[in-house]
Design a protein that fits this description.
single chain
């Protein structure tokens, strides 16, 4: 873009080494934005993103498009109110045993913090191209930690009594968890992903985002549930060794069954939210059925996980964990492959416009590729080069989100 169409090619230092070209051409004739169309291209018709509209501006990751601000504020109010209610309900549910076993409760809390930090790092890291914003990721876990868990604790108790009257208390004792949790817990967790999609529309624009934010909501739910189960295990073991009961419960729920726990179930259901958000919540029949299928798959995994099927032996537990985990991995890698392909295609097109080699432009789709390109740049120039990389990646992700509707 820095030379006329028929001007002989000039070598620009650093271009062949995968660096992002300077934003101004050699003659400084015209300042361009990375990822923009060549100056002689046909202007795009104004769309829902405003691309090509007169006076349009680029909307950053944290901004809202016109017409989204009021729904976003309402969603934030719902999120705040639900978390406060969930906190109150969780405290009412657990305050007695926390006071009775203060030090074991501190141990359970500490183990929960470790689980949270490790899971938070992993789930942000596995989002392709760039991690989600810290603010959105934290709020996703907060919904799971407080809103979903607090309400679910009371909803499960109420529905458990209902199953006892319908099925008889002996049968209900074996099947209540499998019949209750997939409905109450999965829908409550899924509601958090929907609220986040409305509150932060640019943070959840496709299946990949739905998977990641769903996993974070599930992580929060799992941490609080582990805490409550650890405290309950103290009284169930006769309070003979409270600290041992807490640590054993946490190890079983994190190490033994953690791979197939709430994060995986909600990640699958959250992907359904991304499928709908990608088309502005106006899906055709095929997309609607696909989203419904993902939600039902998450519920089926939860049902199977909590059911007495295959018994309580190690083999049965392993089979249940494997089913949920592998289901989540299939959904993740399908969404990831499609998303990364679109981003790389966009980066390749931008790189071609800017005079970069296509392979070097595609490498910007990964953190490793961006860091490798930066390492070949003189240290004083790295901040500017990093900003150019971010602009290119931002544009590529915007295009990937727009292409998801096709």
């Amino acid at each position: 873009m820095g030379r006329a169409p028929h001007e002989p090619s000039k070598h620009t230092p650093g271009r062949d080494e995968g660096q992002v070209p300077s934003q101004r051409g050699p003659e400084h004739e015209q300042e361009t934005t990375y990822g923009s169309r060549p100056h002689d291209a046909e202007p795009a018709a104004p769309g829902r993103d405003g691309e090509g509209a007169p006076g349009s501006v680029h909307i950053g990751r944290g901004a809202h498009e016109p017409g989204q601000r009021l729904p976003a504020l309402a969603a934030m109010a719902v999120l705040a109110a639900a978390c406060v209610i969930g906190l109150v309900l969780t405290w009412m549910y657990a305050s007695g045993i926390v006071r009775a076993y203060a030090w074991p409760a501190v141990l359970a809390f500490g183990l929960g913090v470790i689980t949270y930090l490790v899971g938070f790092f992993i789930f942000r890291r596995i989002r392709p191209v760039r991690p989600p914003r810290v603010t959105v990721a934290v709020l996703a876990t907060v919904w799971g930690l407080l809103a979903a868990t607090g309400v679910a604790a009371y909803a499960n108790t109420g529905m458990g009594g209902l199953w006892g009257q319908i099925l008889g208390y002996e049968t209900a004792g074996a099947w209540t968890a499998a019949l209750t949790a997939p409905l109450n817990e999965e829908l409550l967790k899924l509601a958090g992903v929907v609220v986040l999609a409305v509150a932060f529309p640019r943070a959840l624009r496709g299946p990949v985002d739905g998977f990641i934010l769903g996993a974070l909501v599930g992580l929060g739910f799992e941490v609080t549930e582990n805490f409550l189960y650890a405290l309950n295990s103290i009284s169930m073991s006769g309070a003979l060794a409270p600290a041992t009961s807490v640590s054993d419960s946490t190890i079983v729920r994190v190490v033994l069954t953690g791979l197939g726990s709430h994060w995986a179930m909600t990640a699958i259901a959250g992907t359904a939210v991304g499928v709908l958000a990608a088309v502005d919540w106006r899906p055709g029949l095929r997309r609607a059925l696909g989203a419904l299928g993902l939600v039902l798959l998450a519920m089926l995994g939860h049902f199977f996980f909590d059911s007495p099927l295959l018994g309580e032996g190690l083999g049965g537990i392993a089979a249940k964990v494997a089913f949920v985990f592998l289901s989540a991995m299939v959904v993740y890698f399908l969404a990831r492959h499609t998303y990364r392909g679109r981003v790389r295609k966009s980066l390749s097109e931008q790189g071609s416009d800017l005079g970069m080699r296509r392979a070097d432009a595609k490498h910007l789709a990964s953190r490793h590729g961006r860091n490798k390109a930066l390492a070949r740049v003189a240290r004083p120039e790295r901040p500017e080069v990093r900003r150019r990389q971010e602009r290119m990646v931002e544009e590529a992700e915007d295009r990937a989100a727009r292409h998801a509707v096709n």
